[in-house]
Amino acid sequence: MNSKIYPLQFDSILKERIWGGEKLKTILNKPITSSITGESWELSTVEGDVSVVANGNYKGKALTELINEFPNEILGTAVYKRFGNQFPLLFKYLDAREDLSIQVHPNDELAKKRHNSFGKTEMWYVMQADADARIIVGFKNDSSSEEYVEHLNDNTLIDILDTVKAKPGDVFFLETGTVHAIGAGLVIAEIQQTSDITYRLYDFDRKDAEGNTRELHVDLALDAINYKKVDTYKEYAKQVNKSNTVVDCPYFTTNFIPLENEKEVVNLGLSFVVYMCVEGSFEIAYDGVTYQYIKGDTVLIPAAMKNYNLKGKASILEIYIS
């Protein structure tokens, strides 16, 4: 692959959601055709939703095919050793025109046992926020399964959950077991383990176009929830042209790069790198070729791409596995 190596972009996988809107088009230039588009999956190997290369020599090829053909070159030697041919992360942009359901994700152990899946540790980077936009993250105070069930049955679950105002640039890190909901009026970049396992606790009694309510998973959630109060908000530095650590967990590391002109990157080949452009525009100069990106673009840097330069004026999320 070395002779053909280059930064990989993928066709967006667009998802209609009952809570979705049109900001993925107006703010992030996604080719949506529906007024209730809630998600753009940028990089995925979830079964049935595998990303397809959109540029260069490998255009039209599925990410899973590329990984099977060139596992070390794409994933990196350390990632391949740990995960085999599995791509362990999922990258999305979300547009919440309405509140998302209140939900929770199981940990690795529970997800493996019940669904043969990874758990779902995730982080949110707020790209756009309407006035007074909020998120729900965890409990106001330490709770219990008994208190949770009581409030759920009384239709007062929100009363014991912590609500936090969100603004552009805010980052929230949600470990598995954290009860949460993205509130109306937010556009978010989401980085998570490769998993589509969600237990829905409460959906504000809303109905779809056919008049149906969505399925809830109240019983499954009981032993998946962390009933302790948690701190999900992440403070981080914003040194120009530096990779400022935002989240560093066993599943991924995310850095924030405020790019003002140029930054040289040296990659050891241990892990792939993903860049999400959350503001502005930038380019990658590699092997005599320049690749250009704008707000809303996501790019996968194969691990075998050792040295390259970032140039431009942009805010960029840099993600890899350490």
From TrEMBL:
It comes from the Bacteria. The active site is at 200. Binds 1 zinc ion per subunit. Residues 245-320 form the Mannose-6-phosphate isomerase cupin domain. GO terms for molecular function: mannose-6-phosphate isomerase activity; zinc ion binding. InterPro entries: Carb_Metab_Reg_Kinase/Isom, Man6P_isomerase_Firm_short, Mannose-6-P_Isomerase, MPI_cupin_dom, PMI_typeI_cat, RmlC-like_jellyroll, RmlC_Cupin_sf. Zn(2+) binds at residues 105, 122, 180. Residues 10-117 form the Phosphomannose isomerase type I catalytic domain. One of its GO terms (biological process) is carbohydrate metabolic process. Gene3D superfamilies: Jelly Rolls. Its cofactor is Zn(2+). Keywords: Isomerase, Metal-binding, Zinc. This is Phosphohexomutase. The lineage of its organism: Bacteria, Pseudomonadati, Bacteroidota, Flavobacteriia, Flavobacteriales.
